[in-house]
Write a structure and sequence with these properties.
Distance between the termini: 35 Å
Largest sheet: 4 strands, antiparallel
Shape: globular
Length: about 260
């Protein structure tokens, strides 16, 4: 038997429900849904997500984002973008929020709704791993030089550039300990960097552009996927390919290690 809370959005309503799953000995599941709380908005609510600590909710409403507690009481409204926000993310420590908008800017906010940084001319997709928990850094990919990624502090100041890719960078992520970055590029490689911008390893062998790359929970492995999703590959930090994952019936996209994954001894 299991019970959990779920948030979903339909047009102008943010609704909190509980899902209760009951399993019988015949391996059949019964699902019970119960509404807990509902918020009716005057604007469309979209892209709802939980904070990593599970205490807050982040929602998007056109040019604004809102932070809520679990009773759907509003905590702060993030206002400042000139065009609609299409993605937003909590930092891993749940202290900051990043928003990315069609106005080509990334903005960093605290929980009071105060904007603490804005970086313009950025196109990169947003994920929680653009933040470094340890160093209060975040990553951006500039429109005018999409072959590079830039490490910035929370004030938006550039710390260093990650230069070496020959084509557009598709993703950039910090390791879980905040000490390394992995980038994936249309040049068919993924690359590992330290915080000084020094390239540690080049992961070569993909015949097609690399769409995404991520660290294992113990920071000792890299998982990459090609842009056409034909396979996923696992690498060590030296750039050695350890295995290739293939599935003739399905394509891979945004593949991640499970939270409990650890390096084999």
């Amino acid at each position: 038997m299991g019970k959990r809370k779920l948030y979903y959005f339909i047009f102008l309503t943010l609704t909190l429900i509980t899902i209760k799953l009951t399993y019988s000995y015949a391996n059949q599941a019964k699902v019970e849904l119960r509404e807990i709380k509902k918020f009716q908005s005057q604007e469309h609510i979209g892209n709802v997500s939980f904070s990593p600590n599970g205490k807050y909710i982040l929602s998007l409403s056109q040019k604004n984002a809102r932070i809520w507690d679990l009773s759907l009481n509003p905590i702060a409204e993030l206002q400042g973008h000139q065009e609609n926000i299409y993605k937003a993310s909590f930092s891993p420590n749940s202290k900051y929020i990043a928003t990315i908008s069609y106005d080509a800017s990334i903005r960093i906010w605290d929980f009071s709704g105060k904007q603490i940084a804005v970086v313009t001319g950025q196109y990169n997709e947003l994920d929680t791993t653009i933040f470094s928990f340890e160093n209060n850094y975040f990553l951006t990919i500039p429109n005018d030089n999409p072959n590079t990624a830039i490490i910035r502090d929370l004030a938006g100041k550039q710390i260093t550039k990650l230069q070496g890719h020959t084509k557009r960078v598709n993703s950039a992520r910090f390791s879980n300990n905040g000490r390394l970055i992995v980038t994936a590029s249309d040049d068919g490689t993924a690359r590992i960097w330290d915080l000084s911008g020094r390239q540690i390893a080049k992961l070569e062998g993909n015949e097609r552009p690399v769409y995404d790359a991520s660290f294992s929970p113990d920071n000792q492995r890299i998982l990459t996927t090609s842009s056409f999703g034909e396979n996923a590959r696992v690498w060590d930090l030296s750039g050695k390919q350890l295995t290739t994952l293939k599935d003739s019936e399905h394509r891979f996209n945004n593949v991640f290690f499970s939270p409990g994954a650890v390096k084999n001894s």
